[in-house]
Amino acid sequence: MKQPTAWLLMELKPISNEAKEYSKTLLTLGNLGIALWIVISAIACWFFNPLLGWLFLVSAFVMIFVILRRLGCNSCYYCKTCTMGFGKLADLFFGSGYMAGVDASVKYKTVFALVLLGIVPIAFLAVSIMQEFAVTKITVLALLLILLFYSGNRRPR
Known about the structure:
- This protein is mainly alpha-helical.
- The protein has one domain.
- Helices cover 66% and strands 0% of the residues.
- It is built from five helices and no strands.
- Helix 1 runs antiparallel to helix 2, helix 1 crosses helix 5 (135-152) and helix 4 runs antiparallel to helix 5 (135-152).
């Protein structure tokens, strides 16, 4: 009789033999950029409803820096130096978009994260602007659009 193998105990095999080295600049600035993007998105939601802004802030930080980072970093096979997934996260949002050893499902989850950080706050901000116009709201909208288009255009063609 065949024994069931626990999926947590399965050995992870590299998809690619190429190990990735992340620059300290990309690692630092990329993760600060993601954190700033989350804060700006939370501010956009806060204009619509302050409670929604706080909930968005906490949930986006957990989703990006805990869940998505962990999904992208599932083994030490893929990096020359351990960044605990923070290098892959920065590369995915602000780098070349190439991630050795990450399957397609993580890339689809990243598209979901881009929608969460870009489209959802922009929609709440648009409703808030229609309710009451303010220059600060337009500034936040411009920053969100810049971050969304910059990150979206970094993908390899």
